[in-house]
Structure formats: C-alpha cells, structure tokens
Amino acid sequence: MNKFLVGVIVILVVVIGGYFLFKGAATGNVVADGSEDVVVINLTSSHFRFYLNGVESPELKVKEGDKVKIILNNEEGFHDWKIDEFNAATQQVSAGKVTSVEFIADKKGTFEYYCSVGQHRANGMLGKLIVE
Fold first, then answer.
1. Closest Cα partner for 46 from 23, 21, 73?
2. How far apart are CA 131 and CA 56, in angstroms?
3. What is the pTM of this model?
4. What does residue 70 show for φ and ψ, rounded to 5 degrees?
5. pLDDT tens digits for 27-51?
6. Distance of alpha carbon 43 from alpha carbon 85, whole angstroms
7. Which of 33, 32, 36, 52 is nearest to 44 (CA)?
8. Of 21, 28, 22, which Cα lies nearest the Cα of 42?
9. For residue 71, what are the contacts with CB-CB under 8 A and spacing of at least 6?
10. Please, are residues 107 and 85 in contact by the beta-carbon 8 Å criterion?
11. Which residues contact 80 (CB under 8 A, 6 or more apart)?
C-alpha cells in the first residue's frame, strides 16, 4: 500500500472517530474509559440561575443507574450545584471557575438540584433532575 493511501485511511479514521465522539458529547453520553458510559451535563451558573444551552433552570433527564457528571461553569458570582438525594455537590466556585461532581442516579423520581450558597436557592437558583 502506498503512503498516500495509508494517509487517507488514517485521516478518515480520525475524522469518523471524532464525529462519533462529539456526537456522543452533544447528546450527553460520553464513553469515559471505553467500558462505561457517563452522562455528561454541562451547566452554566450566573446571577441566581442555572442554564443549559441557554435554557434557564433546565429539567435534567437521566435514566436510573446512569453515572452522571455535572460540569458547572460559573460565569458570574459565587455558586455550586447540589442535590441532596444523591449526596452530590460541586465545590463552591467564583466567577470564571469550573467545577464538577459525579454520582450514580440510583433511584427513580424527580429531585430538586440547587445552589447552596447563601439565599440563592430561595431566590430561585434551582431546577429538577428527573430519573426515569
């Protein structure tokens, strides 16, 4: 096989592999280590609100048994992300910082997540995690 053909094959493998990797990331399912799926949710926090793709206080949906990774990108203020029923919380971070937490969604139901800083929860910095 000539070098040109080998180069084309390598490029195709990289492009196709990248497509499936980023397609999985866009839907929330990312293969972490080749053996288990992790549902990755990228949230943004700002003035007393959480956002997911521009949607304020989004409902987050996962399946029972999913390993969930919440990545919190704090754009403004001082915030965290917490959900009591799964004993999961990120660190409290200032503007411009990113933090994350992983947990197993091991029970079905609708659960409230929130920011535990000061009165942020009372001011509406919360949302729902739905485990189906």
1. 73
2. 19
3. 0.73
4. -95, 125
5. 343 334 444 689 999 999 998 999 9
6. 19
7. 52
8. 28
9. 40, 41, 42, 43, 98, 99, 100
10. yes
11. 72, 89, 90, 91, 92, 93, 99, 115, 116, 117
